[in-house]
Amino acid sequence: MNKRIEELLAEDGIYVSTTSGVSMLPMLRDRRDTIVITPACERLKKYDVALYRRGDDYLLHRVVKVLPDSYIICGDNCITLEKGITDAQVIGKLTEVRRGEKTVRLDGFRYGVYCRYIVATFYPRRAFRRVKGAVYSAAKKLFGRKK
Amino acid sequence: MKIKDGFVLREVMGNYVAVAVGEASKSFRGMIKLNATAADIWNCISQGMDEDGIYDVLFAKYEVDGEKLRADIKATLETLEVNGLLER
């Protein structure tokens, strides 16, 4: 009964589910928010959230740059850019989000500000995470318990 | 009779869809599309109604042939149960 998402999208023109993982936090909470995916009929635009395949995995991440033949994509809570994602890998795009009973409008002003903030602060966030990781590792080496 | 914990009904673009949230989404991936009548049945179950209660509500709402309605309710409940969305 668990059909592939591609099949459901082809049959119904819509796919509704929840997401798992933390890569799209704070927008999508692990197994709590409902997402609505529709087929990507045309090329994606910057800030769209793409559902695409990487091997056997389905990923739902944001387009941060549109290139002539591919996209650069990144999860809102990720610090690694995924380059070279092609239209052939893209299955659909996020068109609606439900947080509980509340619908998040993806064409709304607040969402627009959120997208731009997330994309604009990618490099500072990445630098901060790396520094934080390095400090944590150093602290662990210095003060960590020895067996 | 109750809807299993972790399943919710959503109305999306004019469609009714049952999806799993939380722990239930670990074992159930995907969605089940429901028509408007099945969505009414779902809402009746959520309110704690039994099969007779559902029949009364839908009969008053749709004014259809009673026997056919009972058969439709039964079939919908079986579908929900077979797909693991309903506990009896």
Structural account:
The complex is a heterodimer of chains A (about 150) and B (about 90). Chain A is of the alpha+beta class and about 150 residues long. Chain A has a single domain (about 5-145), classed as Umud Fragment, subunit A (Ribbon). Chain A has 3 helices and 8 strands; from the N terminus they run H-E-E-E-E-E-E-E-E-H-H. Chain A is globular and about 60 Å long. Chain A starts with a helix and ends with a helix. The mean pLDDT of chain A is about 95. Chain B has helices at about 25, 35-45, 50-60, 65-80, and strands at about 1-5, 5-10, 15-20, 30-35, 85. The termini of chain B are close together. By secondary structure, chain B is of the alpha+beta class. Chain B has 4 helices and 5 strands. In chain B, helix 3 crosses helix 4. Chain B is globular, with a radius of gyration of 13 Å. Chain B has a single domain (about 1-85), classed as Arc Repressor Mutant, subunit A (Orthogonal Bundle), CATH 1.10.10. In chain B, the strands form 2 sheets. Chain B has a 3-stranded antiparallel sheet. In chain B, strands 1-5 form a two-stranded antiparallel sheet. The interface of A and B includes residues 2, 3, 16, 32 and 34 of A.
Topology diagram in text:
The complex is a heterodimer of chains A (147) and B (88).
Chain A: H1 5-12, E1 15-18, E2 34-39, E3 49-54, E4 57-66, E5 71-74, E6 82-85, E7 90-99, E8 102-104, H2 109-120, H3 122-143
Antiparallel strand pairs in A: 1-2, 2-7, 3-4, 3-7, 4-5, 5-6, 7-8
Chain B: E1 2-3, E2 7-12, E3 15-20, H1 24-27, E4 31-34, H2 36-46, H3 51-62, H4 66-82, E5 86-87
